[in-house]
Amino acid sequence: KAALTTGADAEFTTEIGGIPKAHMLDGPHGMRAFGEHKNSVCYPPACLTAASFDRKVTEEVGNSMAKQYKAFGVGMMLGPGLNIKRSPLCGRNFEYFSEDPYLAGELAAAYVIGAQKEGIAACVKHYLANNQEFRRRNASSNVDERALHELYLENFRIAVQKGEPKAVMCSYNLVNGEQVSASKRFLTDILRGEWDYKGMVVSDWGAVKDRAKAIHAGCDLTMPSEHNTDNAIVEAIKRGELSEEELDVSCSRIEEF
Predict the structure, then answer these.
(1) Residues 6+ apart with CB under 8 A from 49
(2) Which residues participate in catalysis according to the annotation?
(3) 140, β-bridge pairs
(4) Residue 127 DSSP class
(5) Residue 50: what pLDDT?
(6) pTM of the predicted protein model
């Protein structure tokens, strides 16, 4: 069960116990394989589609993208990206929709709906407050409570509640000094408690520092492959730091995906 909660490699979940592996690839504006070349349409980035203010356009982009994924037998699209554009120096601004949380959330929800009509899982990212490039993997986004709820959480709330994505990707960074991949507040209390999210949480690639703490917080799948730390989960259960029931819940979410 510990082995199921991390990838087989950079693209696939682990096939184990009769549970087949699932394939996921980056987007959100063209299918991007990590190694093997795949011919895929390159779609307009979110910064351009957001300028339309048109939910239908964004839904059609998500739907057309999903058809590409389906044609290659890929089950999950790692997108859309909907972080708030806070700094012009953020290297991912082109793939985020807007500096406005309402616009970002509404268009992301439409994208998810369009994609999942094709039976392809959409994964909204990067939850949350991952808005800069400098020290992107380990900086702390320090945000007061009002700004956090009105700006940096609101876009994800809209996308999650209206779009109902199959997956949410947690980000690299810390928020107010707490690692998002190990934050029970953000991954369980808010995401699943306040917003009633039912799907899987997958880490950004390399965002998890402690897999047992991540599972306890509500991060179900650590990507990419971290099988060298499978035994750390077993030992955490033996020490009482993680319950086997929590591990079972993460496994069930991965299996349902």
Answers:
(1) 57, 58, 61, 97, 107
(2) 204
(3) 174
(4) E
(5) 97
(6) 0.96
**Looking at residue 199, what DSSP letter applies?**
S
- Split at pLDDT 50, 70, 90, the class of 163 is very high
Task: Flag whether pLDDT at 36 surpasses 70.
Answer: no
Bridge partners of 174?
Answer: 140, 179
Residue 57: partners with Cβ closer than 8 Å, 6 or more residues away: 49
CA dist 168 and 158 (Å) reads 13
Measured between alpha carbons, how far is 232 from 192 in angstroms, rounded to an integer?
26
- For the record, the structure tokens of 92 come out as 């991912």
Nearest residue to 97 via CA among 66, 124, 69: 124
* Torsions phi, psi for 252 (to 5 deg): -65, -35
Does the structure show a pLDDT above 90 at 35?
Answer: no
Residues β-bridged to residue 7: 13
Q: Calculate mean pLDDT across residues 58-77.
A: 95
Tokens 């971290």, located at residue = 226
